[in-house]
Structures are given as structure tokens and as C-alpha cells.
Amino acid sequence: MRLQVQEMQRAISEGRKQQEAKCNKKLLELHSLQGMVDELQAENRQLARELQAHVKSKCELEQALKSRNEIIHEFNELLDSNLEEHAQFLAMKQEVTDVKWQLQQVQTEASEFAKLQAPVMLWARTIFRRRQISSSRGFTEFEVDCENLDSTRVKTRSQRHFQLRQYCKMWRSAAKYFLNNKIFRNGMQKLLTAQNTPIHPVQNVLYQSRRLHSQTTFKFNFPASAIQKVETSDKHRWFVVHWEDGNHSVYPYAWLRDNCQCPQCFLSSAKARKFAIKDLDVNISPEKIILTDSKISVAWPDQHISEFDANWLRTRCFHQSTREEKQNQYFMRDQLHWGSEFQIPTANFEEVLTCDEVAYKWLCNLRRVGFVQLKHAPRRKGQVAKLGKRIGYVRLTFYGHTWQVEDKPDANNVAYTSGELKLHTDYPALHHPPGIQFLHCIKQTDVGGETIMVDGFHVANQLRQLNPEAFRVLSSVLVDFTDTGKDYCDFSLQSKNKIIDLDHNGNVVRINYNNATRDSVLDLPAEQVHPFLSALKDFVLLMYKPENLVTFKMEPGDVLTFDNWRILHGRLSYHSDGGYERHLEGAYADWDEVMSRARCLKHALHGDK
After folding, report:
1. CA 536 to chain centre
2. Higher pLDDT residue, 537 or 220?
3. How far is the C-alpha of 123 from the C-alpha of 255, rounded, in Å?
4. CA distance 570 to 423
5. With contact defined as beta carbons under 8 Å apart, do 570 and 563 qualify?
6. Residue 101's Cα: distance from chain center in Å?
7. How far apart are the C-alpha atoms of 602 and 63, rounded to whole Å?
8. CB pairs under 8 A, 24+ apart, for 214-218?
9. Domains and CATH numbers, the chain
10. Is 138 left (phi over 0), alpha (psi -120 to 50) or beta?
11. Taking the model in full, what pTM does it have?
12. Is 343 helix (H, G, I), strand (E, B) or coil?
């Protein structure tokens, strides 16, 4: 029994020791945790101090930003003020330039005074004695009865002094008027020149007084130029220029004043009119008209003088043939329509980029036939952007500056599939669709993918001949087009366009047709729906006639450039199995930029010819 008690005491003692050991261990752990808590509290205090420092730094940063914004605001105000001062400076500079030019004119006139004084005095005295200009505007300040002065018997010295003063006043006024009047100055100069140049053919130029409305009062002899003579017609408010080749041109007075080319009315550096239309007297008539050195000088009632070069006037003749010729030069209206026999014009891609003559021929062909194929472009992206830069810039649309035509999953455009693409023009969902399209073949599929094209103007004219009523419907009915999706950005387009657009002369100028984006909304009375659909079907069936279609397959390195307002294009289906896939890169440009580049290239190559 005692042994059991001893065993129990030993067990209790060992248990107590174990418990003490555990308690000591727990106590050590507790001390360790307390140390950790102290460390964490120290860290929290440190973080709190750092947070306070950060908050203070943030406040200082906000204050600095506020100060910076105030400085920027002050700088912007100062910049605006400087810009205003700069604009005022430029205006003052222009005024100084004008004053310098006027000063030069005055100095020139002063240098000519000695040469012109004697003949002007003689001529003025003769004119005044004959009293031929006493009723003309501008002479009233020195209208003096010369005959009465000459016939008056002067008996006293005061009367003689008075008569002398009258004579001096009259001749000073006459000389001042004639010498300050550029028309008469040039006329006298040519009078003197003509006397020393007998080998020049001589002509009579007629002048008409604005008030008298008579045939003419004065005659001068000038060396002949491209202009034979000038006649006025106050009834029609124009003058008639008779050219040496036998033709004649009419120029309205108001148009001449509106198009004065002097520095006061025209900024030659910008080729822009400065004269304000609000200052134009539409009923104006000239005081005097004179021909000098192949130029016509016109003096207006306010003594303003306009000079017009003969060539400048000839190219702005109002005759219908001249106007048509000028418009054809501006807009290159000479076009060749074609069918399946069409031989696609080609050019070298690199030469278009580097040679002005090749680039000009490319744009001329593009305008004339609507379609040019460029060959041997590098087989990588970025080439259509180079073409855009050659012209000026590409047109940004909702599909980006350039876009990739590939078979894409969840395509946002029917062109981004491998299926057949029907004949269409791009973007009729815009009220102003792109004028030019570039398509660069980077990769081509082995089977399918042929390109089809048709001259829309040619087919439209066929429809006009074969079915005039269908042509009338398609050229008069506004059709709704739509395009919705997300690419360069999200978009939701809606437009109304006629399938066939005509100009004021009834000529076809644009085709707007894309069956994929033609809206189901049709803004027509129900009874007009059937005639419209019937007319549209007839037009499309004409497009697909074999004699109108051109079919070919692009090769890698080819770039199609075509008129998107004229050429309808499409594609046959092709196999897309994830192997050698078809890949085209496209871009747009507008006709305004293309025509601008063509005119610039023409001027660089041929000047003003």
C-alpha cells in the first residue's frame, strides 16, 4: 500500500514538474509574444509618425500643385497677352509695309516728276483751254474759266496778281491731279516712249467719261499688246476687251472691283482676298480705263486704282468655253468609262513614292479611269500609309487610319470574313464617303479570293439608256444606310444617300451602294417601295453582266488604288483553314487631298503651262 502511495506521489511530483515545465514554456512564449506586441506597437507608432509626415507632405504637395496651377494660369494669361501683342505687332508690321510701299510709290512718282512736268503742263493747258474735261469727276477743284481769264483786260496790279494766283492755283492743281493719278502718269510715260519707238505698231485706245456716257473724249497712242482695244458699256455695267486674235471678253465692273489685285485688296503671299464684300459698291462704274504694258488700269470714283494683267484676265473670261476649260483644268473632268475589255493601268509602287512625274501620271489615270494597280510594294504592313503621306494624309474613319482585311472571328464587318463579298462602294453610311481607297495585298490564299470590279458610272449610264424610270428613281430617292459596332472606337452611323448622285448638269458623280449596310428602315410611302426595289435590282443585275465585270487575282505586293465614288468592288469566297491566310491592308483618302496633290505636282513639273 505504501509502495502504491509512493508511486502515486512520484507520479504526482513528475506531473507537477511537467506542468511547471509547460507553464514555464507558456510563460516564455507569453514573454516572447509580449515582446512582439511591444515591437508591433513601436512599429505602429513609427507608422503613425510616417503617416503624419506623409499627410504633411501631401498637404505640401497639394499646396505646391495649387501654386503650380496658379503659375500656369498666370503664364497662360501672359501668353494670351503676348499673342495679342504679337498679333498687334504683325498688324502694325503690315501697316508699316504698306506705308513703305506707298512711300516707294511716292518716291517713284517724285523721280518721274521732272520728266513728266513739261508734257503734263502742255497737255493739261490744251485740255483746259478746250474745256473737254470740265464735267469729269475729280476735276471740280480746279475748274477755272481759262478763256475768261485770257480775255479779261487787266488794268490794275492787284488784278494782275489775282489773275497770276488763279493761273498758279489752276496749274498746280492740274499737275498734282495728273501726277498722282497713276493712269494718266502711265499714259504720258507711254506717250513719251511711243515717240521714241516707231518700230512698235500703234493703236488707238478709246476712253469714256463716266458722266457723259459718250463714245470717247480722249485718244492716246500706245504700243500694241495682246489686247487690241477696250470698250465700256455703262448700260450693262461692264467693259469689253478685244483681243488681238479676234476674240473678245466681257468683265463686269463690280467683279473687277471685287478682284482688285493691289496689296491693299489682295494678300499675294497667301493668294487671298483682303477686300471685304461689305465694302463693295455693286453698282460701281469706273472713272477711267487705260491700257498699258499688256495691263488694264482702272480708276474708281474713290481714286482707288486697280491693275489687271492681260493673261490674268484672259484665263478668267466669262465665255462658256473658257469657263469649261478652266473647270476641266481644276477638276480633271475628262473621264474614260470601261467594261470587261478594260486593261488595268499599272505603275511601280516605289516610283510613285519617289518620282513626281510617275506620281502625277498615277493620279491622272486614277481620275480618268478610276482604277490603277501599283506593283512591287513591300509585303509588310505600313505601305498604304506611305501612299497617304505621298498625297498628304490618309482619312481617319471608325475603322482606324488603316485597317486589316482578314478572316476574323466575330467580325464587325462582312469584309472581315472568308465569304463572298458582293459588289459595293465603301461607307455609304457616311454622308460624305471616302473618295479614294487603297488595298495592299500582303498575303494571298491559294484557292479563291479573286477581286471583281465594275465601273459604276458606265453601268449607271447604261441604266439611264435602258431603263430611264429606274434611273430616275435611284437618282432621286434617299436611302437609309447604317453601320454600328466597335473598332477604332464604338460607332453608330446613320445616313441618307441616293444610290446615284448627279451634279447640276445631270452627270453621274457618285455611286452610294452597299447592300450589307442598307438599312431595313426605308423612309418611303408603301406604294413606292416596290418601284424602288425593282429599280435597284435592275441596276445590280447590270453590274454583274459579264461585259461590265473585270475579274482578277491580286498578288502579294500589289496595291489597288481606286475611286470609291465610282468603282464598285467585291471578292469571291476563299478557303481560310488557319494556314496561308489572305491578308490585305487598306486605307482611305479624299478627293480634295488627291486633287490638291495632282495640281501641286502639275505645277512642279510644268509650271503654269
Report:
1. 35
2. 537
3. 33
4. 4
5. no
6. 31
7. 60
8. 217/132, 217/133, 218/132
9. 108-180 (no CATH), 198-329 (3.30.2020.30), 346-606 (3.60.130.10)
10. left
11. 0.62
12. coil
Decide the pairing of beta strands 451-455 and 567-571: antiparallel
Dist CA 472 CA 601 (whole Å): 39
196: its cell numbers: 521714241
Give the tens place of pLDDT for each residue, 455-501: 999 999 999 999 999 999 999 999 999 999 999 999 999 999 999 99
> Hey, is 607 helix, strand or coil?
coil
pLDDT at residue 113 in the model = 58
CA distance 473 to 528: 9
Whole-number Cα distances in Å, 245 to 225, 241, 242? 11, 11, 8
User: Which residue, among 427, 356, 361, has the nearest Cα to 590 in the 3D structure?
Assistant: 427
CA gap 473, 502 in Å, rounded: 12
What is the spatial distance between Cα 178 and Cα 449, in angstroms, rounded to a whole number? 80
CA-nearest of 209, 172, 204 to 190 is 204
What are the pLDDT digits (tens) for 502-534?
999 999 999 999 999 999 999 999 999 999 999
Length of the chain: 609
**Which amino acid, 118?**
A
CA–chain centroid gap for 84, Å, is 27
- Residue pair 552/344 in contact by the 8 Å Cβ criterion: yes
Angle between helices 456-466 and 529-543 (to 10 degrees): 120
Report in angstroms the alpha-carbon separations of 319 from 226, 235, 282, 313.
18, 19, 21, 12
Contact between 568 and 423 under an 8 Å Cβ cutoff? The reply is yes
Residue 103: Cβ-neighbour burial (10 angstroms; 0-12, 13-18, 19+): exposed
Cβ within 8 Å of residue 572, ≥6 positions away: 420, 448, 449, 450, 452
Sheet with 451-455: list strands edge to edge: 421-424, 567-571, 451-455, 549-552
SS3 13: helix
**362, 372 contact by CB (below 8 A):** yes
Closest CA to 367 of 558, 562, 543: 562
CA dihedral sign, ordered 387, 392, 393, 395: negative
- Beta-strand runs (E) in 261-304: 266-267, 272-273, 288-292, 295-299
d(CA 541, CA 459): 10
Exposure string for 219-253, b = 16+ CB within 10 A, e = fewer: ebebbebebbbbbbeeeebbbebebeeeeebebeb
Q: Is residue 593 exposed (0-12), middle (13-18) or buried (19+ Cβ within 10 Å)?
A: middle
